Amino acid sequence: MALRLHNTLTKKVEEFVSRDAGKAALYVCGLTVYDHAHLGHMRAAIVFDVLRRYLEWKGLQVTHVQNFTDVDDRIIQRAQNEGVPFDEVTEKYITEYRQALEALNVLPPHVEPRASRHIPDMIEMIARLVEQGYAYYAEGDVYFDVTKRPGYGKLSGRVLEDLRAGARVEPGEFKRHPADFALWKRAKPGEPNWESPWGRGRPGWHIECSAMSLKYLGMGFDIHGGGDDLIFPHHENEIAQSESYTGKEPFARYWIHNAMVMVRGEKMSKSLHNYFAVMDALRVYPADVIRYALVSVHYRKPIEVDEERFADAARAVERLRVALTAVDAVMASVKVRDGSGQPSGKLVGAVQRARSAFESTMDDDLNTAGALAAIFELVAEMNRAADEVQKGQIPAALAQIGLSMARAMFLELTGLLGLAFKSAPIDHEVQQKVLRIAQAFRSTAVHSNTETLISNLLDVRERARASKDFSTADQIRKLLAEAGIIVEDLPTGPRWRVVSAAGSRAPSGGGDG
Ligand SMILES: [Zn+2]
């Protein structure tokens, strides 16, 4: 079956055919690193993570490039307000963003170019655009002349005549047309700046993504992605300058845009002060719950995030986890694994149906909501089979093969959506206790989820042991035990698990992989 994706450029759902057979080149506009990432940013990261995983599952070798915009007015503003160098601001938020992605099981991009490290590439592009007459110099700035580009507006559907009326030229700008945009901005006092043929200055935002995507993926790469708030002007301008620069079309073959995360009907954004920072969300909800909530709605529909959305996601994740645990319990009860059992026909059929339903719904413009429905069909069969074994209606040995096939398919399909089931849910009380222990052993507050806090504490304990500070090491172990986290030292390293109030144990993602 062939994957079909909605292409903003053609406004149609089209079959995905890559530029190079067997490969897919993906560029996603990354974060402007001046503040905490919020759930809106995570939706984009997760949508394109699912797309990447799905393309790989389809057998394509994906190159995923996602930039950091680390030269920007808002970064400069923040650095000036805090009285620190601009790269101190960017470094801090890049680190935090990467932690959030890791916690949410988002695969790291293959290349993460930073704008500040690609200035010569941008200067080269701008120089050629000036030479070709697509751009002009004005008072230390360089602007792209939109009137020189036939077809400007083809992505967003904007018309130049309307833009003339709608846009305004800010004081200090020397544009010929209000829709012209800056490729290079002259240096202002106290701002980071670089030498260029037009004097010292810095690049405009749009040229950054053109230069970095062309450098790592080349002209005509497969997928350019981002939030739908980037269609105009950012992506429209990327197309105009890249196609002018190379003299070829298309710059990117498929333009994929995710809809926004909404709070009470309004777009979640920094400027509206209605955002939920990812690191705060991770302190309240397990990573799987956040991921589930964000993939439960089709990527082209806005998603309202509220308590109810997360409560629903938490219940759904729990149902998935319970099914997996039930199957594991049945499998563990089979003492002799001689493979003599016959696969249960019903379950094998359900496994095949789940795979094909999952694939056909994902092929239909990445319908993750439908994909979850396919997974739940499989879960119903897993529960039924586990239940039959527990009631003694069928011998465990007979169900074993079918169950292990179902289990593998369950993990494969949920894994494509990035659900990890790494550990048992850690309840709020335990989370709070772990946070207090982590604070006691660190001078600065750590913005991280509970699992990361535990693993950091185990690192502190390992370092203490290595330096023969056994009292610190013992103290960490004792405090964690009091909080309900049992640490075991295995030859492969320490492993931890949660002991609930009732004394039941759940496996965890510890050092034993
Ligand atoms: Zn971009």
Explained architecture:
This protein has 513 residues and is α/β, with parallel strands linked by helices. It has helices spanning 39-57, 73-82, 86-103, 119-131, 160-166, 205-217, 231-246, 278-284, 287-295, 307-333, 345-363, 368-390, 396-416, 428-440, 450-466, 470-483; strands at 4-7, 12-15, 23-28, 61-66, 135-138, 141-144, 181-186, 201-203, 221-227, 252-258, 261-263, 266-267, 303-304, 485-490, 493-499, 505-506. The model is unreliable at 336-340 and 500-513 (pLDDT under 50). A hairpin with a 4-residue loop joins strand 1 and strand 2. The two termini are 34 Å apart. Bound molecules: zinc ion. Residues 29, 209, 234 line the site of zinc ion.
